[in-house]
Each structure stands twice: as C-alpha cells, then as structure tokens.
Amino acid sequence: MTPAPLVEMRSVTKRYAGVAAVEDVDFSVRAGEVHALLGENGAGKSTLTKVLAGVTAPTSGEVLVDGTAVSFATPADALARGINMVFQENSLVPSMTVAQNLFLGDEKFFNRLRNLYIAAQQFLQSLNFNVDPWATVASLGVAKKQMVEIARAVRHNARLIVFDEPTASLTPEEKRHFFALVRRLTAKGVAIVFISHALEEALEISERITVLRDGRLIATGPTREFDRNRIVSAMVGRSLVNEGLDPRTRRSARAPGRKLLSVQNLSMGDAVRNTSFSVYAGQITGLFGLIGSGRTETAKIVAGIAKRNIFYGGEIRLEDRAVRYRIPRQAVRDGIVYVTEDRKVEGFFETMSIAENIAIGVLSARKRPPLIVSMADMAALAQEWTAKLSIKAISAEARVIELSGGNQQKVVIAKSLAQTPAVVIFDEPTRGVDVGAIAEIHQMINGLADQGLGVVVISSYLPEILSLSDRILVSQKGRIVEEFTPGNVTEEEIMFAAVH
Amino acid sequence: MSLFAASGKPAWRYVQQENIVIAITAIVFLGFSVTLNNFLTTSNVLSLIQNVAILGILGLAMAQAIIGRGIDLSIVANMAVSVAATLQLANGGMPIALAIALGLALALVIGLINGMLIAYVEIPAIFATLAMGTAAYGFVRAALLNDNLIYLKAGGDGWFKWIGSGQIVGIPSSVVLFGIVAALMHVFLHHSLPGRFIYAMGDNPLAARTTGVPVRPTIVLQYVLSAGVAFLAGIVMATSVDSMETRIARSNLVYDVILVVVIGGIGLSGGKGKIRSVLVGTLLIGTLLNGMTIMDVQYTLQSIIKSLILLVAIIVDSLVNPRDEQTSQQGDI
After folding, report:
1. Are the beta carbons of A415 and B211 separated by less than 8 Å?
2. What ipTM does this complex have?
3. Claim: this prediction has a pTM higher than 0.80
4. Which of A191, A265, A316, A341 is the most exposed place for a label (fewest CB within 10 A)?
C-alpha cells in the first residue's frame, strides 16, 4: 500500500489574465520522496509550485495537505503547514548577514546578535554547510546563497521543499553536495519537489516524475518507467523536426558575411573578464551561458547600456570604427539594438499602445525626427509591424500590458527592429512565450539573418541555441570560452564547456 | 487561446479616476447650484474659474513633470522670486518688456539647474527641487529684492496689467491664458517628440533608456518648461493683484498644485494621465473653494474638506480599479 500523500493537488487551474498557465493538473507528493516536475520553459512548473506554496491562489481546483483541503492566502500560511519553496530567483535579503537571513521573520523582540550567530553557526554545522554566518549574503556565491536558502527551509521544519532549478548555476562539485543534502532530507521524511531542466539529474535523484506541457499534465509515474527519450518526447510532445526546431547542420549553417562587430579583451569588473568575439553579417551567432556567465553583461556593454572598464576595458569595433558608447541612444543610432531578456522591466511601455511603443523606438532612432509626431504615421507603423510579426491584439490601441507574453515580446522586438538596425542582440528571445509564438519568433530571427543583418541570440535553452545558431559561442565566468560549429556538437559538449 | 488580458472583467470596472472626479465635480456643482443663491450666475462661474486659473496653470507645469516620473517642488518659489524680480526691475525704471525677459531668464536658469541636478547629477527630483526652491528663494530675496512684498508700480496701466485683469469678450484674460496654455501643453505632451519621450520615461525609464530615448536632455527640458510656465502663472498672479508676495514660496500652495494634478488621475508613478485630468482637478477644486467661500466656511475647515476629497478620490479609485497580482509587481507608488 502506498502511503497517503503529504500534499495533493486536485484539478488545479490557474489563469493569469484569462490565459491558463496551469490547467486541470493533479499532482501529489508523498513524505520522503523526490518528485521531479519537468517541462519546457513556460510549461507551468513554476506556476504550479507557486500555487502549492501559497504564493498565488488557484483559479479553481483544490489543494489538500494531510488529506484535508486548505486554501493558502499567503506564503506564510503554507509555511505554517511546513511547505517551503526555494525560489529560482533568490529570496534572501542581500544586505543582511547569513545568520540574520536564517532567522528572518522570527527574531525575538530583544535580539542578541551574539546568540543569533552562535545559533546560526551550530545550525549550519548540523547541516554540514560550510557558510560563514557573519558574511553578508551579497558577498556569497550562487551555491552558498542556495545553501542559505535551503538551511532556512530546513530550519522552518519544512515537510515539503520545492526546489526551482536548484542546480542551474552550480558547479559539478557543488551539485554533488546538493544531491547528498537532498538524500539526507528525504531520509528524514521531507518531501521534495524538484524542478529542473537537467533531465539526467531528475532521473538520478527522483522517485517519481511528472511532465507538464503548456500547463497540462502530460505524463506522470515512477521514475523507473521513464528514460531521457520518453521525458523529452513528453516535454515537447512532437519531434523537434516538426516543430521547426531541427538542429542546424553544418551544411545548413550560413556562411559568415563581412565582419560587423569585433570585441576584443572586453572587461567590466568581475562580470565580464577579457572576453573577445566577433559578429558577422548574414549570420546568427548563438551565445550560450548559464546565469552569472556574463553573457547579458557583455551584450549590454556592446549596446551601450552598461559601461566597460575605463582602463583596460578592451575595444569594440563597429565595422572599422572603434566605439565606446556612454548611453544606449548612441548605439541605437549606430544600428546596434538590444532586445532585453526582461521585457517587463526594461522592454515595453505598459500604459502605451502597440503603436505608441513602436513609435518611441522609431523616434529615438531617426537621425532627424519630426518635432510634431503624426498620429497617422504612428498608426501606419503599428499596422505594418503588427502584420509583419503577426502581433495579435483587439486593436492597435490596446495597451501592451493587456497582451499575452508572446505578443508583448513581439512588440518589444518590433520596437527594436523598427529602428532599422545592422546588429540585433536578442537576449532570451522566447522566455515566457507560448509555443506558437516561439516558432514565429524563431522564423523571424532566421529571416533577419537571411536579410544580411548581424544577429546575436543569447539563450540558456540549448535546443534554441542549436536550432538557430550558425556559430555557437559559450560563455562562462565572464569570458567566451569555446566556439562550436553546429552539426558536430552535442548538447552535452556545450553544457560541459559552460559549466567547467 | 485568449490573447487579451481584458477578458472576464466587466466594462464598468474600467471607470477611471478621472471620471469619478468628473462625477464628484458634477454632484458638488449641482449641490451648490441648488442650495446657494448666488452660485449659478455667469459672473460667479467666471470668477470661479478666474480664481483657479493660476492654480491650473501651475498644475499644467507640474503635470508634465509628474507624467515624466518627476516632481517640481520649486515651482512656487521659482514663480515668486522671478516675477518679484521682474516687478522690481520695472519699478526701477527698466522697460517692462526687458524686465519680463530678465525675470523669465532667471526662472529658466533656476529650472535649468533643477534639470541638470536631476538628469546629470542624478539627485531624485523631489530632493533636488525642494533644495533648489529654498535656495532660489533665499538667494534672490537676499541678493536682488528689497522687500518681501513687491508692488506693481510701473507699467501698471498698460498691456502688462491686462494679462492678469483684462478681458476678452467678457472672459477674464487669465482664464483665456489658462485655456491657451492647456491646449499648448496638450499638443506638447501628445503630439510632440519630447512629449512622447516624457510619457515613455514616466512609464518605464529603463526601457526608455534602452530604446534610445534621450533621457537626460528630456529631463532638463521638463524642468525648464516647468519654470517657464510657472513664470507665466506668476505674471498672471502679479498683474491681477498688483503685487507679488514672495512669502508665497513658504505657503502650502505647492501642495494645492499637486492636489489639483493628482486628483484628476495623474499618477505619481508617472506615465499616467492627460491634460484633461488637470482641467478636471482644477474645476473640482475651484468649485469647492468657490462654494465654500460663498458659504463662508473657515479656511481650516476648507483644508480638511479638500484633503478628504483627495482621499475619497484615491480610495474610490483603488476600490474600482483593484491592483491585481500582475500590476502590483510594477512597484508603483
């Protein structure tokens, strides 16, 4: 007889602004087991666990803990029932010390720091974590931050811990420590939900596997019934070839055109260290790297958003001209545009319509912009680009915040492409975008390279890199460490270069 | 799949704060018309608008600063000292046109320093303009002006005097000027290049920068423009009461200006609201003040009522347009 599940979710549905992120999903976790939750980016894994951890309320369906229905109003309610989530995004307070973070939220009224640190020290030792309780969290590396988060979860007597991409930025050595810890936790009866893109890890450590796709439950069962192929086919549902995501072969790779951009010995603090690469016209340069590899920072320096070191900062040449941009406006007017990975924070203007968003892009890039802006021109522009990128909206007047993620992304792309660039840098162009729009965006990116533009695609999603790139660069710890030709490289080889 | 976030939300939920304020204004106006004998007369309605025209013009200057995610707290001090300087120069025998030009230049320089401090030194607008307002008042009062209260003596019966107390076909010239400035400001914000950039910066400064909007020059322009419009408001004020009291810089007029702007639905977080919002806010405050003056309500009570109206407008707005999970992540004020 199988033990009763610790937590059970019955036909849970969660809609964001009418779009289902999770639809009719049953999910359960038993005490002492590792349940791997797998799926592509945007499959609904994070949403499902957010419902579980009380971060958001489900639109319909119920959550049962120990067999009784509960409705969590806040994460604190979930915490009180022993459900804890270690977020993909760090939820520690960076300016506080490790000990303060550990005890955050339940300090005594008179909080003697000495006792606090002694308690933290003892607690960390009991978990075998080598972290200094006096260190501020901001000074820690990713792995140690994660240890602090895990320690905090354990300290709260968590009975269920949700790990959202815990190993994404760990070194192999750190990963071994992490898995040992997971085993120790399960031996104590703690249930673990393990979300990861690393399928081998999931197969190795989990007892059960559930695969989501487009917010729906596709496959679930004991891990022994799964292998890599079954998971992958459940995740993508169709073969990659039908999706248009066939890996580029050596033959189908585009030949490099003239050299548009050359970057030499670029350095910026600790984030970018002495990195060099070139971008050629008529070609897609794929840039793969994990979080913290300096790929976004490198792109932002090139696009004038961040500034490289003043001394020994390296050199950037556009065509044959050395450039050093103080502000993005200069880069934009020179034909270098950057499409951000975080469209909400630095991509679109949410209160503005599609037309107004695109118009801001055009007006910023024009050498001699008109002082009075013609509404008719703006509307015509919007119409042209909504057709070109098949942006779907009630009307061109609809505010961008009301669009789906995929359409928002297309607006951000349209805003940049309307600036008639020569070099386009896409940072995670399909993050948080639905499957249909992904195919359209990929097609559009390919079209740009065919037109002779220099295209850079930054992605941490290997299939995307493999299917789009004519050249693959791998960045790691602020440096481009490896260049691959598509067709004779495997995902494992790229990942290997990225982690070591 | 649904492409639109708007699904499932009935249309009445989309009532804007602006419309709520229009409704409140209409109710207050009707209430006064029925209960007060002298309220609904042409002359009273004209004087009602005349009384708030200066507040309205200042509101227009403030609105474009706030829409760009800034604020100009030096607006009243700037207006007071630059117009007082103009009057004193004119009284000293300088031709009135030259005195105006020099006063305007003083106002624009103060605005320019504001803009530079905010755009290039990157001091938050609220601190930069607070400090500049105090500094400008203290400096000009000590170095240039003879007295706190400067009377309009020279040019007091020519075209200059007309600015604040003349009439065009029976309409007070201050009201006409308010209308003209409002129309120009509307064209500026909605149809001009810098206006579009101001909305973009107010909506999302990071995105504006990345897109290539000339953020810093646009910020400087905002505060110079704010100073220029404030100077005009000051001229209207001085020529309608024949003097400029510089101690107005120490009054809470600037909060009334912010009240007029915010009550109409121009969010302090930037990017939201239109010139219409300022007109609506001005009208509501004007109606209230006028009605309460006819009823002979005490000044302190008037303050309480004004603040209550603001609170009600904001509360009703937050009830009718509740923040959902997604908008609450925007970090708006």
Report:
1. yes
2. 0.84
3. no
4. A265
